[in-house]
Amino acid sequence: MANMIPISTVTAGSGGAATIDFIGIPQIYTDLLIKGSARNTSTNPTLLMYFNGDTTAANYVQKKLYGDSSTKYSTSLENWYGAGYVSVSTSTANTFGTMDIYMPSYTANNYKSFSTDAVSESNASIADSAYQTFIHGSWLSTAPITSITISAYGGNLAQYSTFTLYGIRKY
Amino acid sequence: MTDTKVVVNCTTGETSIVTLDSEEIAQREADALAFSAAETARLEAAEAAQAAKESAQSKLAALGLTTEEIAALTR
């Protein structure tokens, strides 16, 4: 039976944060999992996530299924490091989106895959304010994941945005 | 936008507030520009698709199809 061990929790303080960075990730687990609640201070719902400081978009590929309050969308293969859509500045005050990010075999010497499941506030129909997102992607690097950076595209992570990193042991 | 980030060292448990360096600020600015371009393209495509849909529905109606029949075709 898998064990889910909390490694670190970080919360954006007053004024928000440009990024939240998990560094020095222990290399002793099988997989990694991030559970987060977040709000982008801009009108853009996108959160970004990259590994080991690598912001070269061509080093990431992903497919995305997503929908807003009225329409469903899908994207073909993208060179991009998006992590999903959360609540934005026009969402109901004090509401946060939620997300899970799973990263299997993060220490292996293979390309790293990840999957995300994210939702923004769901009790509003304002454009760009009620999204659900599924992403599966890969970081095209054989390096073990030692750091993870999460940022809010076009804005900041609002105050009280919180992410917890878990290590998964499958034994 | 704030120019600080929150860094947590998962080995030591230490959390610190760090000012972004010039490279990180440049990355954020590049991200914002890229988003603006991508969003403009997405909205233009969505508007074009909606216009095409409405045009097709009008032509179907002109051919004598009922609203229900058009909805059945475009569902």
Q: What percentage of residues of chain B falls in helices of 4 or more residues?
A: 55-70%
Count the strands of chain B? 2
Kindly provide the radius of gyration of chain B, computed on alpha-carbon positions and rounded to a whole number of angstroms.
Answer: 25 Å
Arithmetic mean pLDDT of chain A? 90
Instruction: Kindly report how far apart the N and C termini of chain A lie.
Output: 6 Å
Q: Any idea what the shape of chain B is?
A: elongated
Kindly give the count of domains of chain B: 1
The strand count of chain A comes to 12
Number of helices of chain A: 0
Helicity range of the residues of chain A?
A: under 10%
What is the gist of this entry?
Chain A has 171 residues and is mostly beta strands.
Q: Can you walk through the features of this model?
A:
The complex is a heterodimer of chains A (171) and B (75). The model of chain A has no long low-confidence stretch (mean pLDDT 90). Chain A contains no helices and 12 strands. Chain A has 171 residues and is mostly beta strands. Chain A has one domain (3-47, 72-134, 141-169). Chain B has helices spanning 22-62, 67-74; strands at residues 4-9, 15-19. The model of chain B has no long low-confidence stretch (mean pLDDT 87). In chain B, strand 1 and strand 2 form a beta hairpin. Chain B has one domain (4-74). Chain B is elongated. Chain B has a two-stranded antiparallel sheet with strand order 1-2. Chain B has 75 residues and is an alpha+beta fold. Chains A and B meet through strand 1 and strand 2 of A and strand 1 and helix 1 of B. Strand 2 of chain A pairs parallel with strand 1 of chain B.
